[in-house]
Each structure stands twice: as C-alpha cells, then as structure tokens.
Amino acid sequence: MPGEVSQKLIKRAARDLVSSHYAIALTGAGISTESGIPDFRGPSGVWTKDPEAERRAYETYPRFLEDPKGWWEELLASPRSPIERWKNAKPNPGHYALAELEQMGILKWTITQNIDGLHERAGTKNLLEYHGSALKLRCPGCNLRFSADEFDIEKLRAEDRLPPRCPECGGVMKPDVVYFGEPIPSDVAYRSVEEAGKCDVMLVCGTSAVVYPFASLPRIAAQCDAEYPYAGERASTVTIIEINAESTALTYDGISSYLIQGNTGEVLPEIVDAVKHIRS
Predict the structure, then answer these.
(1) 207 and 145, same structural domain?
(2) Which residue, among 119, 108, 112, has the nearest Cα to 17 in the 3D structure?
(3) 195-216: per-residue pLDDT in tens?
(4) N or C end of the chain: which has fewer CB within 10 A?
C-alpha cells in the first residue's frame, strides 16, 4: 500500500478510536511472529515444517481425557517444547501499543488467539486469551487458572502424584492451551461474544480470521452472523479496522470497514501517535 494512503488510513483509525464509545481488539499469530514466535501454518510455520507435529496435535486432547496421568508423564518426558522459547520471547511495539491504548481508556478489551502471554507481559490488563495460555494451568471443571510456576510438576512426578489437582475443586489440571477437539472454555467464549456484540470499534490485528469459532467474532461485531445472539445494544454502527500484512476473508467479504496493510508492530504505534496528536 502506498505510504500516503496508509498514513490517511492511520489517521482515520485514530479518529475512529478517539470517537469510539467501546473499542476492542482481536489479535492473532501475526502480532507474535514479529516477536520471533513462528505461526503454525504459514510458509515457515511449525506444522508446515513438521506435518507429523500437526498430526500429534490432533491426538493430544483425546489422550489427555483417556489417561491424564500418562499424558502428563509423556509431556514431562518429551524434549523441550516451544514453550521454553516462548518464555524468553519479548513483546514487540504492537503489543505495547495495544496496552497503551488500554491505559488511555480507549481500548476496553483485547481478545487474542495467541497462547504466548506477550499481551500480559506488555501490560494489557483486560485480556481474554481465547485459546488459553501456554504459561498457565487450568482446571476444566471449574475454569480456575493458575500460573504454571505455582505448581512443582517435577516434584509431583517424583512423588508419583501426577496429574496435578485443582486446589479449589480437586479436578485434574491441564495446560490452559485449548487443544483440537477441546471446547473453548465457557467463561472466555461467553465473554468474547459479549464484547464483540457491544463494541462500536474493533481492531483486527495480525489474524486472517479463518479459525473458528474465533473467526466468528468480527462477523458478530458486524452483525452479519445471525446465528449468535448479541450481548447488548450498540450506540452506533460498528467500525472494523483490519491491520494485516495481506488482505483476508474479512477484507473480501466486506466485514472490515477498511484495511491498513502492514505489520502490526509498525502500524499500531503510528495509530497511538496519531491518537495522542488528536488529543493534544
């Protein structure tokens, strides 16, 4: 996209955000690849390079349900996972820009597909991790979540006390990550639909929005998916601002109000600067 057109759209996005009553953001793998975390199905994706890893991913949740103790033992015996690399990853300017928009009182919630914890590290408080977090454990029974550091998993294994148990209800704990075949946790699923249903501005950042049910959220916001109930009355027509390196189904289907083509780590800080200029 020519720079002049891009700058006009950045200023337009800033005006839309400043005048919004209830703005939210959706983020996907594109915002984290700029922090060195590969996506799964892109040209250099984890599963593109290792199709066998994708096959194993589909077997993970059924295996956990069948034998939680054996599942945890296998997990701990496996080679170092990408989670270890994610622990060392750092938020990039795109993450910090969204956190700053929240601190300014403009962005009410961020809903992310990413499981890397980078939004939280960047300072975002109102965060829904739609597919969970690789750095947390969750009880599927009561949906309580804990930092993985709160459990000494190696000690539990040494004492033959796997799987870890929920301190609240005694249920079997699992990583907070939502695996294939596992339902989106009800608390997150409900709140995400609620937020999409009442926003008047939605930033869609670094996601092609093709993985469902997450991909339904922009359509709910645009009132294009009658299958879902809306959570509340909206003061005005929603504006959906897409920030992606390439056009997506949201662009082609007319769900997005407009597309700012570029990297989120570059575009989002420029939008923040433009917001500050309007407010000054």
Answers:
(1) no
(2) 108
(3) 999 999 999 999 988 889 999 9
(4) C
- Which residues lie below 8 Å from residue 75, measured CB to CB, with a gap of 6+? none
Tens of pLDDT, residue by residue over 169-200, are 999 999 999 998 999 999 999 999 999 999 99
Catalytic residues: 131
Whether 120 and 193 map to the same domain: the answer is yes
Total of domains in the chain: 2
Residue 209 domain flag: yes
Q: What distances in angstroms separate CA 161 from CA 57, 134, 155, one per listed residue?
A: 25, 22, 8
What is the enclosing helix (H) or strand (E) of 32?
helix 29-33
Q: Which residue has the tokens 């890893």?
A: 53
Q: Give dist(CA 101, CA 14) in Å, integer.
A: 10
Backbone angles phi, psi at 210, to 5 degrees: -120, -10
**What gap in Å lies between CA 28 and CA 114, rounded to an integer?**
6
Identify the residue whose tokens are 């103790």.
69
Closest CA to 140 of 116, 105, 113, 175: 175
pTM, two decimals, is 0.89
* Cβ neighbours for 267, distance < 8 A, ≥ 6 positions apart: 6, 10, 94, 243, 260
Residue-range definition of the domain harbouring residue 19 = 1-36+91-130+185-280
Cα separations in angstroms, 131 against 6, 51, 136, 255: 31, 21, 12, 23
Choose among 100, 133, 99, 104: nearest CA to 116: 133
